[in-house]
Amino acid sequence: MMPDPEATRQPAAPETGTGTAFCAPVIVYGALRSGTTLLRLMLNAHPELNNPGEVDFLTDHIRPAPDAPTGWRYDLDALRADRMFRAQQIEIPDGMDGLDLTHALLQRLAGKKARGLLCVSMHRDLPLAVELLPGARVVHLLRDPRDVARSSVEMGWAGNLYHGCDHWVRSELDWDITLSRLDPKDWVELRFEALMDAPEAELSRICDFLGVPYSDKMLSYPEHSTYAAPNPAVANQWMRHCAPRDIADLESKIGILMAARGYPPSAPPKSAPGRIRRAQLALHHKAGMWAFGMRNYGALAFFGARIAGKLRLTGLQRHFQGQIDARIRQTLR
């Protein structure tokens, strides 16, 4: 059934401290490696939608500040150094901070495309995001955590599946918190597997939620990106590429949450790994990330960033992190 246009229209938002009206964006929310970049490309290809990319920097560097005019304050140095913020190529207005800055940055992101409903992508801190952006609606993108963990290991963010699923768990627990604060008409769920299997039908459903007509241009993204067309074979790769023992370890850890999200375990539940096995997994996790980091970023930058961080040498840490970020920009799609 087509939604009532009045129900899907973006609600009016409160005035900012500068006196300019602010309209909350649609948040595309899902764990890292769950397909948020692919969905961003699809949405941004729509002539009436505008998704400029990831904006986790909006919540990563803001903190409560009772003495500030809006009750919030940014760590502006950390924001300027943030890799994803820098990739957006937008400026921080002089003298602006807190919620006024949040709104101003979103307005600059909206201005990167001539028109279209603003949609932004986020992977964490969703409860904080909806607190900062009252009236925001959410598209919750969900992917099998076994594939998320497998992809995270490939990215060097984890050394094994057992630890590679941790950020999926955090994202989904944040979703549970946020869900209780959203009106049912203000969110919709999209499964990555369904998007790969029936992209036109799923994108039409998302367009209904957003209040725009479906456009076949949404599937034109392979013409201007490195991403291939939707393919059902992309889903459930863990079945072909992951060792049964690794899957069993992961499922023993998050099987209940997996099942609650509609992803049943591949086998009857097994007991959680014992102390020795957990120690082995932790060592393998650390060694895997170190090997990946040294291979892809160089030992000096990789260990330099970590040592400087532990010693709270902020300038030096940002120097080494800048080298790592530059390398990531060259390889990350």
From TrEMBL:
Give any Pfam family that matches.
Sulfotransfer_3
Give the matching InterPro entries: Gal/GlcNAc/GalNAc_ST (IPR051135), P-loop_NTPase (IPR027417)
Q: Which residues form a coiled coil?
A: none
**Stated name of the protein:** Sulfotransferase family protein
> What species does this protein belong to?
Roseibaca calidilacus
